[in-house]
Please model this.
Amino acid sequence: MTDKLAIETKDLTKNYGKVTVVDRLNFHVKENEVFGLLGPNGAGKTTTILMLLGLTEPASGMVRVFDFNSTREPLKVKRIVGYLPEEVGFYDNLTARENLRFIADLNNIAPSETERRIDEVLEMVGLTEERDMVTRKFSRGMKQRLGIADVFIKQPKLVILDEPTSGLDPSGINHLLDIIAGLPKMGITVLLSSHQLYQVQRVCQSVGILSKGKMVIEGSIDELGREAMAGGRFMIEVETAEPKAGLVDIIKKIEGVEKIEADGTILKISTDSDLRSQISKAVVDNDALLVQMKVHEFSLDDIYMKYFKEN
Ligand SMILES: Nc1ncnc2c1ncn2[C@@H]1O[C@H](COP(=O)(O)OP(=O)(O)O)[C@@H](O)[C@H]1O
Ligand SMILES: [Mg+2]
Model:
């Protein structure tokens, strides 16, 4: 991975009427990474993507894609970006190969290059055997894969995929995600939008979580764990028999304990690290009997839930 940026936004904002649907967005995507743009339906993902592509104008703020300003130089951006919209459309009566030929032609690819490139992209998405089938007979998963092939025909530096897994069954999702995961090695940067974090997190190096037009959190998956859980990254649940008075105060003094909630004989302790041994020592020192202890480390999925619950 390099430090060069494929996408950079500064206070990017879009209004529809009086409603601000994208609100001062700042995020960046590094070259050769898979970036997940995540958020529930209506969060502003598609609107953001349209601004990245120069297909709709921001009210204020700026977006750059590699060396170009998307708003001022949309054609230059279009040349280096492959875009798979939420709804992919093909000519139903044409075969996969014929559809790709049509796209190649639209993108001014030299006819001498076209057939070789079509074979290459069909192979890449696993549709070589279906190349002469009319797309009317394609399943949703096959159409999504053909959509990806279509995006690759022009050999983009960046691909933007808007909810590419929606409507696919689990095996279709896995197949598509495997293709996506392999792109950085081919020198292709990916921005992948999804409202299902759990599905896509395994292929993303970085994510940005969008809620009501605002980026609530952004960064590498490793950093996010630390930052998002500033209020406690681990939850340790302790059950004791007949706890003595003062146990809560003793545990509170352990370094790294952020919060304790007591509910009868059960204590729920939020901590910044795995403090099970310190906590069990405190329980024993208090002469209370430890019945059981459970530890739960927050995953990115919990972080996502936390943000969507609060926003
Ligand atoms: N062309 C439009 N005119 C008016 N409102 C729009 C338009 N496009 C999107 N919106 C609104 O903007 C918000 C963000 O939409 P969108 O970017 O499509 O979200 P997402 O892709 O995350 O589901 C939604 O409230 C949606 O209703
Ligand atoms: Mg959308």
Remarks:
- Residues 5-226 form a domain with the Rossmann fold fold (CATH 3.40.50.300).
